[in-house]
Amino acid sequence: MLEKFFKLAANKTSVKTEVIAGITTFMTMAYILAVNPDILSATGMDKGAVFTATALSAMIATLVMAIYAKLPFALAPGMGLNAFFAFTVVLGMGHSWQFALTAVFLEGLIFILLTAFNVREMIVNSIPNNMKHAISVGIGLFIAFIGLKNAGIIVSNPATFVALGDITNIAENGGALVALLTLVIMGVLLALRIKGALLIGILAGTIIGLPFGVSHFPASFDFIPPSLSPIFMKFEWTQIYTMDMLLVVFTFLFVDMFDTVGTLIGVSSKANMLDKNGNVPRVKQALMADAIGTTAGAMLGTSTVTTYVESAAGVAEGGRTGLTALTVAGLFLLALFLSPVFLMIPGAATASALILVGAMMMTPVKNIDFDDFTEAIPAFLTIVMMPLTYSIAEGILFGVISYVILKVLTGRYKELSAVTVVLSLLFILKFFM
């Protein structure tokens, strides 16, 4: 049944490969189950309820991706978007968390409409092929940067912005050493072409972390999910026609749209899943999963749901179909009842997987035309701005704007599509907003 529904043979994969890929993706993104409740609880939201909302919204969105889009991508409340929700909208602008949830709900409804009328699909397909390859490379650098940062291998520095962490200080930065040891294990397993190399490495890193105090056995085994009642369907409709609501919804729309677009294009490019025209297969269905996930997430009580760049870890393990996503969805459901077990996996172990996936995602760079500077410069800006601005969306923004400007000023405006030009104008407008 699985073979027939997901067309495993046609995609040159197997049930075992897809399940391992799903477990690997889940392991690399399971941190959201701990981080999202921590961030959103700063607004006064019930932390336990947010944990339940996080797991359920991720499961629902990823299940839609698995069954409807049949693609190996996982979704969950997005990092960055949750910080904007908590620290900008609520703590910065002074609005209630109910106001912020209402904005997320409206964003989800707008996305459903935009996806139904093919607007988002048109945007994805309008991005030039060289830029699509650049997005994959940029995401690779971005998630490698995230991995290095999460492990404490690189740290912030007032003088140079970033610097090498104290990787020999086991007492204060044991995570860095655990991550480096895990990196070596994963590297060897990958070089030996052992299936499940990243997953095996994550499990090994968890064990290695125990004597270093990086991994910890659960303090308790409470397997009853917290109630959703404190945050379920808690909307605030009195301010939906205000300028603040417009700005907040626009920001959620912009960041979510181009984070998702970038992830879908970048991971698909790495997996050689783009069609002959350079388009993501079944992209409309994939975008609908994102829109449904965001809408459902707002109703449950969490911030914007988006496609996770960590899906690249599962793709690197051979995941090619919705069975990978189905596995992730099942694990998010299981996590509701086994949260103490899943949360004992340290960030240092999953960080190593992100670093190596970043390396794997560099391969599309060879497909970029660096001899044509109207193509090379936008591609370079796309690549470099993602890690330096800590945003997939900003990388795409700089790439598209520079692409249009260079084509126009060199008299090659006929190579531009109307959608690309409109996008560049909207991106420029975004700077002023």
Your description of this structure?
- It is built from 19 helices and four strands.
- The model has no long low-confidence stretch (mean pLDDT 87).
- By secondary structure, the chain is mainly α.
- A hairpin with a 3-residue loop joins β2 (154-157) and β3.
- The strands form two sheets. A two-stranded antiparallel sheet has the order 1-4. A two-stranded antiparallel sheet has the order 2-3.
- The chain has two domains: 2-221 and 237-359, no CATH class; 364-432, no CATH class.
- 66% of the residues lie in helices and 3% in strands.
- α4 (47-69) packs antiparallel against α14.
List keywords for this structure.
433 residues, two-stranded antiparallel ribbon, globular, 4 strands, mainly alpha
What's the helix and strand layout?
Elements (H helix, E strand, L loop, with lengths): L1 H5 L8 H15 L2 H9 L6 H23 L5 E3 L3 H10 L6 H20 L2 H8 L2 H23 L2 E4 L3 E4 L5 H22 L5 H16 L30 H28 L12 H18 L4 E3 L3 H6 L5 H16 L1 H4 L4 H14 L12 H17 L2 H18 L8 H15 L1
Antiparallel strand pairs: 1-4, 2-3
Helix pairs in contact: 2-14, 3-4, 4-12, 4-14, 5-6, 6-11, 6-12, 8-11, 8-16, 8-17, 8-18, 9-10, 9-16, 10-16, 11-18, 17-18, 18-19
